[in-house]
Amino acid sequence: MNIIINHDYRSDMTQDLPLEALARMVLEHEEMPANTEVSVTFVDNEEIARLNEEYRGKEGPTDVLSFECDGLFDEMEDSEGFGAEIFELGDIVIAVDVVERQAGGYGNTFEQEVQLMLVHGLLHLCGYDHIEDDEAEEMESLQADLLAAWSAQA
């Protein structure tokens, strides 16, 4: 698996976090193929707000956005990604300033909140959502389980 981390904004806050290993753990749990590639980019509020408006039609910054690339949820057997040299699962964009503010509000450390956003974004790329209550419950439960497993091995 290839996990690309782009510390485009406030790298002093993010560059020492073990995010590649956490992403790999989540992707392996979800049985993604070994040729899976995902990128994670840390941005400022202006960039996340621009992306939020452009792709979701919502104004203002948000904490995390996920963008699917290779169509995992087309017919699996027919998905070009599963037979391709590189299966580009998608891109995750995380707003450092939003995450920093949220962490304090939720009683988390910055690192814990970044980990939550990474797991959340990856689960979206793996097909989970939280539009309906039952979907939200399933996704939140899985997030909690994955983060607990991560904490236990750290």
From TrEMBL:
> Which controlled-vocabulary keywords does the entry list?
Cytoplasm, Endonuclease, Hydrolase, Metal-binding, Nuclease, Ribosome biogenesis, rRNA processing, Zinc
Q: Where does Zn(2+) bind?
A: 120, 124, 130
Provide the family line: Belongs to the endoribonuclease YbeY family.
Which InterPro entries does the UniProt record give? Answer: MetalPrtase_cat_dom_sf_prd, YbeY
Does the keyword field hold Phosphoprotein?
no
Q: Where in the cell is it found?
A: Cytoplasm
Q: What is this protein called?
A: Endoribonuclease YbeY
Sorted alphabetically, the Gene Ontology BP terms of this entry are:
rRNA processing
The UniProt record lists the EC number as 3.1.-.-
One family name in Pfam for this protein: YbeY
The family database entries (PANTHER family) matched by this protein are listed as: ENDORIBONUCLEASE YBEY, CHLOROPLASTIC
Q: Tell me if rRNA processing is a UniProt keyword of this record.
A: yes
Instruction: Give one GO molecular function term.
Output: metalloendopeptidase activity
Q: Name one GO cellular component term.
A: cytoplasm
Taxonomic superkingdom: Bacteria
Q: What class of enzyme is it?
A: hydrolase
Q: How is the cofactor bound?
A: Binds 1 zinc ion.
**Purpose of the protein:** Single strand-specific metallo-endoribonuclease involved in late-stage 70S ribosome quality control and in maturation of the 3' terminus of the 16S rRNA.
Q: Which cofactor does it need?
A: Zn(2+)
